[in-house]
Design goal:
Elements (H helix, E strand, L loop, with lengths): L1 H20 L16 E18 L8 E4 L2 E11 L4 E5 L2 E10 L6 H4 E18 L6 E14 L20 E14 L4 E11 L18 E15 L1
Length: 232
């Protein structure tokens, strides 16, 4: 997640320059943008997904997770509740990849499992904003989501004994984040950072209850971080 935090830091620094340009007594762009009852847009972004494991017994050897940078894209539907609060629906497509390293094996073929996931996500969020300050407006956002993992392999008859790592297809969780709306002359541009946390166990255990891969796992849940760029 370090790379994504560095990237967001650069965005904040660039945003500081934008704020400086919008400082003083600027000409207000898109003055009626936030007064619409319904608003539409789209987003592009990056993600870095991890796994959180709960073990049945503490054997002193954790499963290692090697994270990579993924991407996400989606649409936005926003409903205005009042001056400071909006309800948002942000359906999207997300791709991510994680490599798991299981302890206790002598060969790489047994110890390493690459988990590639393509999620269709359906987040329902509330966005709470401050008063507009010139041509920018900070906010916090949070809510729940459900997602479908198209690469779950949940129905596969093969398991880790044949090199197949399986996950549940349906995932439920919550996300929280913050960002800043910037009002340009033609559209509203919004960088934001989100934390994503699954509430449901996503692991499909191996057929053997004493499996050296999944036998000691009590639960496995996704957690991750997003950086989104929104255009409305």
């Amino acid at each position: 997640m370090k790379n994504l935090l560095i990237l967001f830091g650069l965005i904040v620094l660039s945003g500081t320059n934008v704020v400086a340009q919008f400082g003083g007594d600027p000409i207000l762009n898109l003055q009626n943008e936030d007064k619409k009852f319904l608003n539409w847009g789209y987003y592009l972004g990056f993600n870095q997904y991890d796994f959180q494991f709960e073990y049945k017994e503490d054997v002193g050897r954790d499963i290692l997770v090697d994270k990579t940078l993924g991407f996400n894209v989606g649409l936005i539907g926003e409903l205005r509740i009042n001056e400071f609060l909006d309800a948002r629906f942000e359906p999207g497509l997300l791709y991510t990849s994680r490599t798991l390293g299981f302890p206790g094996f002598s060969t790489q073929a047994e110890a390493i499992r690459e988990v590639r996931s393509t999620y269709i996500r359906f987040p329902f969020l509330l966005k709470a904003s401050t008063r507009r300050i010139g041509n920018w407006r900070p906010f916090i956002v949070g809510g729940v989501y459900t997602s479908i993992n198209l690469g779950s392999n949940e129905d596969s008859l093969d398991d880790n004994s044949t090199g197949q790592f399986r996950m549940k297809q349906n995932v439920y969780g919550y996300e929280v984040g913050f960002g800043i709306d910037f009002y340009t002359e033609y559209f509203k541009f919004t960088p934001s950072i989100r934390g994503v946390f699954a509430l449901t166990d996503e692991l499909v255990p191996d057929n053997d209850p004493n499996s050296p891969w999944t036998g000691n796992i009590n639960a496995m849940r996704t957690r991750g971080i997003f950086i989104n760029f929104t255009f409305e």
